[in-house]
């Protein structure tokens, strides 16, 4: 069964919001994250071929690469599309346009690993600065207690949030690991990371080795 797998020709690899979240929500390495992150870093205009799949999967084993692709497709982390993806050039303005789509309240921030925000939608400047510090400290606390959370409590999520009595999030901090850089996405209200805007955000952040290099949007 495994040896019968083959690529359908003339398709472009597209990552779903779930696949993008899986790729960047954890800094641990895996074959799945390698393939997903390399596709996210690509231009989106390259047709998926066997050679390109091997390059993205960072392997020379065609069978293993095809099986990995098939498994990620079954998980709905990626799919094939007959048109290339469109992505605007990386800029402060491009990020600012995406951020409101990631929250039902249209409020979101991007924070660098030093605790400074560099893109903002919906928060006033003073609040954004304070929330950035809070988010940075919360994620650092989470990282210090990662073994307890994962090994003892069997919780495999890295996001932290402030919730109302029904469990609805009012403020959530999502660590995003882009190569060797950590970025924190803050959403006010209920997160909307199931949208294509999240995939576009991740792809934009991959366009630079230093995501915070976009500058800080006040």
From TrEMBL:
Question: At the top level of its lineage, which domain of life is listed?
Answer: Bacteria
Q: This protein is called what?
A: Roadblock/LAMTOR2 domain-containing protein
Query: What organism does this protein naturally occur in?
Result: Simonsiella muelleri ATCC 29453
Lineage per the UniProt record: Bacteria, Pseudomonadati, Pseudomonadota, Betaproteobacteria, Neisseriales
């Amino acid at each position: 069964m495994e040896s019968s797998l083959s690529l359908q020709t003339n398709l472009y690899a597209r990552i779903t919001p779930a696949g993008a979240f899986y790729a960047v929500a954890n800094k641990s390495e895996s074959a799945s994250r390698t393939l997903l992150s390399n596709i996210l870093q690509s231009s989106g205009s390259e047709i998926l071929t066997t050679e390109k799949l091997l390059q993205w999967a960072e392997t020379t084993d065609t069978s293993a690469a095809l099986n990995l692709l098939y498994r990620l497709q079954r998980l709905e982390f990626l799919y094939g599309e007959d048109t290339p993806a469109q992505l605007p050039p990386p800029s402060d303005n491009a990020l600012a346009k995406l951020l409101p789509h990631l929250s039902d309240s249209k409020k979101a921030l991007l924070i660098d690993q030093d605790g400074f925000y560099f893109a903002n939608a919906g928060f006033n400047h003073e609040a954004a600065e304070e929330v950035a510090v809070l988010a940075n400290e919360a994620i650092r606390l989470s990282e210090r207690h990662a073994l307890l959370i994962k090994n003892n409590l069997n919780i495999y999520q890295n996001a932290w949030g402030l919730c109302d009595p029904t469990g609805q999030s009012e403020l959530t901090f999502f660590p995003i690991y882009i190569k060797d850089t950590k970025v924190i996405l803050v959403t006010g209200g209920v997160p909307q990371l199931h949208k294509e805007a999240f995939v576009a955000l991740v792809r934009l952040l991959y366009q630079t080795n230093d995501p915070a290099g976009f500058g800080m949007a006040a």
